[in-house]
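JOB MANIFEST
job_type = single_chain_structure
chain_count = 1
residues = 704
[input]
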Amino acid sequence: MRDDVRDETSSTLRTADWYRTATRWTQLTLAEDDPVKFDPQQWIDIFRETRSNATCLSAGGYIAYYPSKVPLHYVSKFMDGNDPFGELVDGARDLGMHVMARVDPHAIHQDAADAHPEWVAVDAEGNPRRHWAFPDVWVTCAYGDYNSKFMPEVVKELVRDYDIDAVFANRWQGHGICYCDSCKSKFHTATGLDLPRTTSVEDKTWRAWSAWRRDVLTRMVIDWDVAVKEIRPHASFIPNMGGASLMEFDLDLIKKHCPFLVVDHQGRHGAEPVWMAGRNGKRMRATFRDRPAILITSVGPEEPVHRWKDSVNTPAETEAWIVNGAMHGMLPWFTKFNGVVPDTRWIAPVADGFKLHETIESTLADTTPATEIAILDAATTLRHWDFSGRREAEADELGFYHALVEAGLPFEFVSDQAMTPEMLDRFKLLILPNAVCLTDAQCSMIEEWVGRGGSLLVAGASSTEDGDANPRDQLGLGKALGVKMTGKPRGPVKNTYVALNGDHPISKGFEGTTRIIGGTRLMAVEPTGDAEQPFLYVPDFPDLPMEEVYPREDPKGAAVVARETAAGGRTVHIPWNVGGTFWHVLAGDHQRLIENAVRWALKSEPAVEVTGPAVIDVAAREGEGVTAVMLTNLTNPMMMKGPIRQSYPVENQVIRARLPAGKSGATARLLVSGGEAPVTVEGETAHITVPSIDLAEVVRIDWS
């Protein structure tokens, strides 16, 4: 028995608040032959070594790992009369851990398909869908009877027969449009339309299908949760949310039925920075500020094209992903596919990452995120996009995110579908990298906030369309920005530039040039009142033949508009895709432009910032008489492309933190490395020097 874990969890075991002490998770996803190959005791030892206080275990759906009696519920052919799921549940409970059963309803075997062909998804040509990776089985329709009638029986059996706290569903949301007769009929009844044949955001039928799917999935969450609670009132159904910032669901109903959120972003792939882990935490808080959120980390590499699911990543990569998520408030969860452990190199980095979380857990509990800067999470725009195209739709936001990380500035997200006046009033500056679709009500709320003194930085084609993606004649935020749209967004274009225009803080730091790279999607605007134009467009000119590559006209037309508002704030409008261009090209001039615009719009020195020769992902939190500055060291040749081989320590990073009202001094403790950090106070600012940061450090500043 692990007394330390039992002490942590004893007050909430088998209560409605059980999830509040479920803060470090082990997930084991079994392979079909595991019942005769794996060692359950080895996994109980791993629970101990990683200091996990909760576990998610393979139970049923595609394959049952317990002796299920639900008709057509396929039971592993290697079971041989035993009950691996039950054995693991008992072992975890003996350690005082919380337990969640994992189900996966995305595929079925031949006997179920023969008995219920309506359970099988259908492609656009009318063919039942065989599984893309294992053609012996069939992909299920997520929107019909399989999930609404069959799977609730599996869920009820698990909750009735086993000592568990929740049922967790993976791959339950479907795989694109299903063209089965049931979906055709239900969609037509709900909308009067036939199923869409494209996933284009411009297709109104596709947008209608996205809304219909959102409604179906939300009701499914409710139905499964009701089925759980009817048998075990303290328990819940927990859907795997992905990294979609909850944009696919009815938020009021999710709030009622999901006490915590699980994000299935298991690691980096392609050119993703490590800060992607922590970004998930900010996006969850953007919708539900105080709800616990969990980040799943795979112990193997995450590459969608090249898949090695039963593999092991480099230790430094695994630990960095866990730690960056934890530094931004995500509860750590690791997942291992296959109960057999031929390669044990993942265990130590998981244990180290979990230990760091345990070290900072009390500080996270005693503080809340506190920043002056917020990026708008543009759910109203992104939910119109198919999942496969959503990352490109997020490019502008990703560019702004990376620019602020490079600037050493902490910031949060605000979801446009959950924002309130009170939420906006917590921030001095709101950034809209490319919130194309905004409702009239959302525009009015932001405009009123600017009228109360808030500062606004808007880029790209933000507010050019309403909430249903219908084009507007004028910008929805035009009045707040003091600009008028004189030309519709256009692009992609090549070989564009913007020219410096006069002396303004936004155009500082570009010595030696009169122009910088422009964007690929441009919009024409002009100020409607007194405003400065720190940058002008250089009118388009050809990029070939090379002899024709020269400008024909002098710079004209506002490429950046900056103004002071009557309420005491500032607004900046950049009517081109500076964020997306920076994300794709990583030109230093664009980082400088974004940082300059942010610092000018703030009007004062940031409350917290970090300077030094390094790339540090910064988070700031506040509690009673305390500020916690969370630092993840991203200075690494593998920062943008994993896997990380090792961390590279950096030295002498300086935190500048504004003294709270009534305070004149401070002490600073280093929670990860231990010891004190030197503090000097100059005027209203404390300067804290962090001597060295390996992967991460948390600086706890106690004000006096």
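[summary]
The chain is about 30% helix and 25% strand.
The first strand starts at residue 25 and ends at 29.
exit_status = 0
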